[in-house]
Specification:
The chain is 18% helix and 43% strand. The protein is an alpha+beta fold and 443 residues long. It folds into 2 domains: 57 residues, no CATH class; 356 residues, Porin, CATH 2.40.160.10. Strands 1-2-3-4-5-6-7-8-9-12-13-14-15-16-17-20 form a 16-stranded antiparallel β-barrel. The longest helix has 38 residues. The radius of gyration is 36 Å and the shape is elongated.
Length: 443
């Protein structure tokens, strides 16, 4: 009875659930086996990949050289700047020329003062890198001021757009002896090239008169937090290539008696008389290949010396107030019977931050030019400048409005009439400066 009941139930089960027939069950079992086999194959493949992972990782492990390159890229800084202005000279000079200006040289013009690009990799001893370098490229009116003169630079066109280009190595001596080789901006005078880092838009007479750059080798050693010394050997003042065999010398000290006061004391010895004459368009086989190189000696050659005594001190009286005082004496020996040319004087600067976005700055200076070494005329010149800053954003954009008056003890400044000179010139200038990049603080 029981067996019969079981048979009936089984029959009913397969009638109600026909998918569980023997044949279908056999097919399903086969399908399950195929799926299990496929899963086992996939597991085996994954296991092989896991076992190979250490070997693959080893193949892609970063080498020491790659780590160094990655560090360079991480520490590489760059900066770009665009410096523009419009100036109006109330003398309305012929040719729209602002005399005695370094950069804002034209009036009644929308002008491109300079466009710059900086690339820098500074040494980092803590990270194990003792060497680095810097390149500064420059385009615009300021470029012609810096490297436009054949009087100082035998071939300015070769290097015209390279304002700075030097490599650095920190010798492991004491606190670290910093050695630079190449071309760098001069430390003579308190002002420098980049407008965003200056108190005023226009530059002083002393910036215009003192050297802009040098080519050679320099060393810096910081004894402690108070005293650092600098020594240079250069081709000359504003000479990427030398025009005589004398190598100019510079020695200077930077004194920082307190965090608020910094004082530079510097002396420069040069010889600014060429010993050859430039050759333009050489064609003979026995002449130098490139224009500007010369084998035509100056006879007789004069070896009179240039002496520059320069000092300036900066006092940060508060977070919003800064004062700077500069003094200079320059003498240049001339062939007899001409007397030695002498230039002396100084400048005073003050800047007050008014609000987060506004500031006002002033400058007054005096320069006595005996022998016309700077202006070409023996005279005493003076100027006063007032500059108002507005920064619509905290960093990267600056608008400057400036009024300046230059005046002399002799008629010197151009007017709108040929042959008529005035003892003064007044200008109103609007400067607009943009900068961006990863290089911060002063450039």
């Amino acid at each position: 009875m029981a067996s019969r009941l079981t048979a009936i139930i089984s029959t009913l089960f397969f009638v109600v659930y026909p998918s569980y027939s023997r044949a279908q069950t056999t097919d399903r079992d086969a399908d399950i086996q195929r799926r299990i086999a496929a899963l086992e194959a996939q597991l085996a493949e994954l296991k092989a990949l896991v076992e190979q992972k250490p070997q693959v990782a080893a193949q892609h492990e970063v080498t020491e050289d790659e780590k160094i390159y990655l560090d360079y890229l991480h520490d590489l800084k760059f900066g770009a700047a665009l410096d523009t202005y419009y100036a109006y000279n109330f003398n309305q000079p012929i040719g729209r020329v602002n005399l005695l200006r370094a950069y804002d040289v034209t009036s009644n013009n929308f002008s491109l003062n300079q466009a710059n690009l900086i690339v820098e990799s500074a040494p980092d001893v803590a990270a194990g890198r003792r060497f680095g370098g810097r390149l500064d490229f420059q385009f615009g009116q300021a470029t012609e001021t810096l490297q436009g003169s054949l009087v100082n630079e035998p071939r300015p066109y070769v290097y015209r757009n390279i304002f700075q280009a030097y490599g650095t190595y920190i010798v492991p001596v004491g606190s670290g002896l910093i050695v630079d080789f190449g071309k760098w901006a001069s430390a003579l005078g308190t002002e420098s090239n980049y407008t965003k880092d200056q108190m005023n838009y226009s530059r002083s007479y002393w910036f215009n008169f003192l050297p802009f750059y040098h080519m050679g080798a320099r060393v810096n050693y910081k004894f402690n937090d108070v005293v650092a010394l600098n020594y240079w050997v250069t081709n000359g003042t504003q000479q990427t290539e030398a025009f005589n065999n004398f190598k100019d010398q510079f020695v200077g000290a930077v004194l920082t008696p307190t965090k608020a006061v910094s004082w530079n004391v510097q002396y420069y010895l040069g010889q600014e008389h060429p010993d050859v004459q430039p050759i333009v368009n050489p064609i003979a086989p026995n002449l130098p290949t490139q224009p500007g190189l010369s084998v035509a000696p100056v006879v007789p050659y004069y070896t009179g010396k240039l002496n520059i005594f320069d000092t300036y001190a900066t006092w940060v009286a508060s977070a919003d107030t800064t004062f700077v005082l500069e003094g200079d004496y320059v003498s240049n020996q001339n062939p007899s019977p001409m007397p030695t040319s002498r230039v002396y004087g100084g400048a005073v600067y003050a800047r007050q931050q008014l609000t987060k976005r506004t500031a006002i700055a002033g400058r007054a200076e005096y320069l006595s030019d005996h022998g016309g070494l700077f202006t070409g005329v023996s005279q005493a010149i003076k100027e006063t400048t007032v500059t108002y800053d507005y920064r619509p954003v905290t960093d990267g954009f600056l608008i400057r409005a400036e009024w300046r008056r230059d005046f002399s003890d002799t008629p010197f400044f151009l007017t709108d009439t040929v042959g008529t000179l005035k003892t003064d010139q007044q200008t109103a200038t609007l400067g607009v400066v943009w900068w961006w990049g990863t290089k911060r603080a002063a450039w």
